[in-house]
Amino acid sequence: MNTISEYYSDPSFTIFKVPEWRAKFYKFLSVEVWGNLPSNLQRALSSWYSSVYDKPYSKKIIEPYIRLNYADKNYLEKFRPPNGKKEFESFQDFFIREFRELPNNESDWVWPCEGLLCDEEKVENLEYVQIKSDLRSVATVFGLSQKDIPKKHTFTNVFLHNKNYHRIHSPIDATITRIQHVPGDLVVLRPWIYKQNPSLPAFRNERYNIDLQDANGNMWYLSIVGGPAVGTIELSPGIAVGNKVTKLQELSLFYLGSTCCMAAPVPPRFHTKNTFVEVGIPY
């Protein structure tokens, strides 16, 4: 039986197989059923669902969740509760945890997020995607026209599993030249149910697009994409058009589920499709 591999966030790549028939069924539920609900209803249901994790009792989930999902039982020691809190007061606090100390390396270009690199290709090689009655190019993800993104740029899509760190950081030292909020759907993000096009949700889901210009005048395009159960995509303090950001400065955070797309003037040097990337390691 044909299968689709799911790579969990562990660097050891613990994998389980999703049968082809199940992937197709999940895609049908996501795109044809949930995806055809009005967007405002999707957001309302997602907000209601995510609010469960704001309740104080939900903090009881954190310890067993860590035991279940991380080989390193001291995993939480490198993080702190968000917003200056002394302790994690809910599961949502764990979900939007902060680094105690940001990763540190000398590379000029780093990965902005943690997760599975589920798509990686030159822009010029990417095909159009049919979304309902529209034919969309990869530039649609970033809210731009085809002529705006150089064909030699490399498109990447990193899927953030629920257990991954859910803050997005700048991959470079740069100036913010554009910020755009794109309203949209909140279809399921998991790439293994979209076998032919793992980035399909990024073409239609709600997202924030941020354009960054580096010191050499090259443009880096980021798209921060929400999915089901995302109550909020929140920009970080100081993230505004015209402001400068430093490498690894925080750009945004997600309240549950997400994916991060990027179109960069250089390809990844050490990672290929279906490998695990982490915040701050060389791009």
List keywords for this structure.
single chain, 14% helix, alpha+beta, 3-stranded antiparallel beta sheet, disordered N terminus, globular, 283 residues, 17 strands, 8-stranded antiparallel beta sheet
- Structural class per helix/strand content? alpha+beta
Total helical segments: 4
Could you list the spans in which at least 5 consecutive residues all have pLDDT below 50?
A: 1-16
Shape summary: globular
Name the helicity range: 10-25%
The count of strands amounts to 17
Describe the structure.
- With 283 residues, this protein is α+β, with helices and mostly antiparallel strands.
- It has one domain.
- Helix content is 14%, strand content 29%.
- It has helices spanning 20-33, 39-51, 62-69, 91-95, and strands at 3-7, 15-19, 79-80, 98-99, 115-122, 129-131, 134-136, 154-160, 167-169, 174-182, 207-213, 219-226, 233-235, 244-245, 250-254, 258-264, 275-277.
- The strands form 5 sheets. The protein has an 8-stranded antiparallel β-sheet, with no helix packed on it. The protein has a 3-stranded antiparallel β-sheet with strand order 9-15-13, with no helix packed on it. Strands 1-2 form a two-stranded antiparallel ribbon.
- The longest helix is centred in the N-terminal third of the chain and has 14 residues, at 20-33.
- It starts with a strand and ends in a 6-residue tail after the last strand.
- Mean pLDDT is 85; it is low at 1-16.
In short:
The protein has 283 residues and is of the alpha+beta class. It is built from 4 helices and 17 strands.
Please specify the SSE layout and strand pairing:
Elements: E1 3-7, E2 15-19, H1 20-33, H2 39-51, H3 62-69, E3 79-80, H4 91-95, E4 98-99, E5 115-122, E6 129-131, E7 134-136, E8 154-160, E9 167-169, E10 174-182, E11 207-213, E12 219-226, E13 233-235, E14 244-245, E15 250-254, E16 258-264, E17 275-277
Antiparallel strand pairs: 1-2, 3-4, 5-8, 5-17, 6-7, 8-16, 9-15, 10-11, 10-14, 11-12, 12-16, 13-15
